[in-house]
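Fold it.
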Amino acid sequence: MTRAASRAVVGAAAALLLAGCGVLPAMPGPVPTDLVPSTAPVPTPTSSGNLSPDGFDAAQRMAVRIRNVGCNSLSTGSGFAIDETTLITNRHVVADSADLQLSTYDGRDVAVTASSTAALADLAVVRTADALPSAPGLADADPNPGDEVTVVGYPQGGALTVTEGQVIGATTDPLNENLGQVLVTNAEVEPGSSGSAVLDAEGRVVGVVYAKNSTGQSFVVPVSTLRQLLADETAFTASTSCATS
């Protein structure tokens, strides 16, 4: 091969190498040192119902989202604190559970230590290891027909929701006839609202949501029944895990 031909081959090989390799990008700049971790925003309700600003603040702080991880199912419900480490919900919200998971309005997880259910009414008591943010007072008497009420809970296991309505009247409990009279309201509730607190204008608990009918009316265990059962040490029985039953 002549010297000229040799130079042509080397030149062609160099051209192929350059064609097969892209141009390297410039080195990145120094890593910034002033980063601030971001947190997911906590959704807030767009309505305070019939509550005053102070009453609304207390209501959202006492409401708890409940996630029931069962052996063959997953469901959600609501509850509310009655003291620092005790909350009220429905019996069917905690039934057939392998694990109960609680979270507060600000996204904090709260560990459960025990739960118990009432035989007479669709009510349950859940004990927590950690302190709950706030607990409302229980009203001294049941509301009257026409009284305005506000329901605070987590329908569909989503964001905290506040709905308002009125007490329509009372009726025999359609699910637990031995219970006697329960309240009927026109406040809208959805699956996941079970166990929600029903509050009067002062933010006091006047009942606990436990069911709805096909026309959109909600059924409420009145506060008089809640008080009666809480005062009876035999009214609630310790729950058992579906994993051991």
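The radius of gyration is 29 Å.
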